[in-house]
Amino acid sequence: MSDKPISIRDVAERAGVSPGTVSNVMNGSKPVNPALAERVRQAARELGYQADRAAALLRTGKARIIAVLVPDLDNPFFTSVVSAVETSLRDQGYELIVASSNGDEATEHSRLAAMLAWRPAGLVVIPCSDDFSARAGIEQAGVPYVIADRITREPTADTVSVDNEDAGTIGARHLLELGHRNILVAASVLTLGNIRERCAGIGATLGRAGLPPPVILESGGHFELAAARLSQWLDANRRPTAILALTNFTTLGALAALAERQIGIPRPISLIGFDDYAWMRARATPLTAIRQPVTEIGEAIWARLKARIDGDASPPAHIQLKCSLEIRASTAAPSVEDGISTGAA
Amino acid sequence: MSDKPISIRDVAERAGVSPGTVSNVMNGSKPVNPALAERVRQAARELGYQADRAAALLRTGKARIIAVLVPDLDNPFFTSVVSAVETSLRDQGYELIVASSNGDEATEHSRLAAMLAWRPAGLVVIPCSDDFSARAGIEQAGVPYVIADRITREPTADTVSVDNEDAGTIGARHLLELGHRNILVAASVLTLGNIRERCAGIGATLGRAGLPPPVILESGGHFELAAARLSQWLDANRRPTAILALTNFTTLGALAALAERQIGIPRPISLIGFDDYAWMRARATPLTAIRQPVTEIGEAIWARLKARIDGDASPPAHIQLKCSLEIRASTAAPSVEDGISTGAA
DNA sequence: TTGTAAGCGTTATCAC
DNA sequence: GTGATAACGCTTACAA
């Protein structure tokens, strides 16, 4: 409970040198006599000295802080991205400051401003909408940033996302190959570009097979809402032979709706989930799922950001990572009668 | 991409006042002539001024930063606590800096030191072990902190956790009432005090019913490991009529092991999970689960920390929140033959 | 190679 | 009520 933190001057005094020399020893910014350097390090160790990073920041103007803004800290996809970024950062002496916009534009603005006030070296943002109205504020601040997952129209910064169209394609193709012709797409919200792209990939794939566009159900961003909307839809319409979910929450919604109606998986309804979590495997019928490469996403984000921080001035890069299809037991060929009836319809 | 951030002096100049006055206006630390104040605010708005918080910190020594250290940013329980804390903080002008110790003592040390170098106003830590060897470093820094979830022996700071013994008790009692006598406890690691307390609660409850202590299987902290250990155990021993899982990952492990063996839930084996997530409900057999009050945990953490930051010097408080049992479909009375055979054994 | 001193943007303490 | 001015702890020219 010692109240005054140890300053560089305390160390200097104890080692019998000047503060400047201590700084040079600690940062290696200038060569220092080895014997002296050792004495300084010794003194620092004895006193438990830790440089005040705020003071250093003030002087240099370059904080070793990365700010991360996500729409929801309770969504495992977002936290897994945060985790992946954190892992990349940790060895390079950076700190992570995080905030959640709670999917709200106004909050996004204010949280962003608050984080920017720390003059971070870089910023990672998963915007809460494609408008990304906070962009102006960031660019005015002149902070390098990368936009992840949800890509703004005409982005003026680096972006990292998955190839959403391809993600839709591999899901649709798998169902097609199994013989499905009557597919329900469980989208979250169609105002999001990445969701629309996933839909586009599905639509194009069906189109190439000479099929009409799929039914797309906009089921909302939350689990409960998705479950309710899907339940309602299933009760009101002829049942599809397969459901293709486009987010982790809609996957849960579909699962809940099917379970509640005691509809079997993969028959009479096959299900493809989105993302890949342990709970998808820990089931009697493990879920076939479209997996986003989370670790690679985090690494790509950091690679771009680090390059910008280090002065890279090349035009914005737009990195797209491929999703993979994890084929498990929740997809199968449709029942014969379903296949015939829908195929002949 | 304007490179120089706007400083308090720029605002002062534009408003035709001194920097000190601007500071007083922005922080309300001293009364200022309303007309002047408005002029200052106007100028600040026009320039897009945002006070540099690092500079303010340097001067005041009081950062509006809270550092949070958790063992794993991919564990939804930990991230939900982070999220709950973030929600509490956001309106009070604090920022959150987070790091993961990855369950490793050395990493815990170094991450802690790095975060402490920002002179945060407070610290919340979920230690990676009960030893919590980093404690000394924190106390030397004189930062108010609260220990959450995993409680150190003889804690010298505020702690917030659930009543783990009670959590074990309500789970065991539920199984007892259903008629189970042959219960397998899926613990993660017994070096953790909270897990041992949960076990103690179970043991005591069984004891009061005149039953011997339960079989406790230490299945490890990760999903894959838990699944493997539980599988192995189930193959090598007489089957229990119920499994009581003590963490979210062991819940998943149990689910996976049972699914793989095509063992039904709740018969022949009932299952109680730990924590409460959407995936536990989105199942044909929704899971009965011991729910930790995550939001309340986050609020309690922040309440204690805020009080300490504001100078509360009362003796360390040790807050224990009660878990609740969410009874769903994964628990039922054991099959008759099982009930008889084990009851008579 | 080492010491000295200026200055980063802010807030607090003074005079006024 | 307002304006100078010093100081926070650090880095970095520049002087020695």
Please give a quick description of this structure:
The first copy, chain A, is of the alpha/beta class. Chain A has 14 helices and twelve strands. In chain A, helix 5 links the parallel strand 1 (65-70) and strand 2.
Largest interface: A-B, 64 and 64 residues
Distance between the termini of chain A: 78 Å
Major sheet attributes of chain A: 6 strands, parallel
Topology pattern of chain A, helix = H, strand = E: HHHHEHEHEHEEHEHEHEHEHEHEEH
Q: Which class do the helix and strand fractions of chain A yield? A: alpha/beta
Number of helices of chain A: 14
Helices and strands in order, then pairings?
Two copies of one chain form a homodimer.
Chain A: H1 8-15, H2 19-27, H3 34-47, H4 53-60, E1 65-70, H5 76-90, E2 95-100, H6 105-116, E3 122-125, H7 135-141, E4 145-148, E5 158-162, H8 164-178, E6 183-187, H9 193-208, E7 215-218, H10 223-236, E8 242-245, H11 248-260, E9 270-274, H12 278-281, E10 288-291, H13 294-309, E11 318-321, E12 324-326, H14 336-344
Parallel strand pairs in A: 1-2, 1-3, 3-4, 4-5, 5-11, 6-7, 6-8, 8-9, 9-10
Antiparallel strand pairs in A: 10-12
Chain A binds a DNA duplex (16 and 16 nucleotides) through residues 5, 7-9, 17-21, 23-24, 27, 29-33, 36, 51-61.
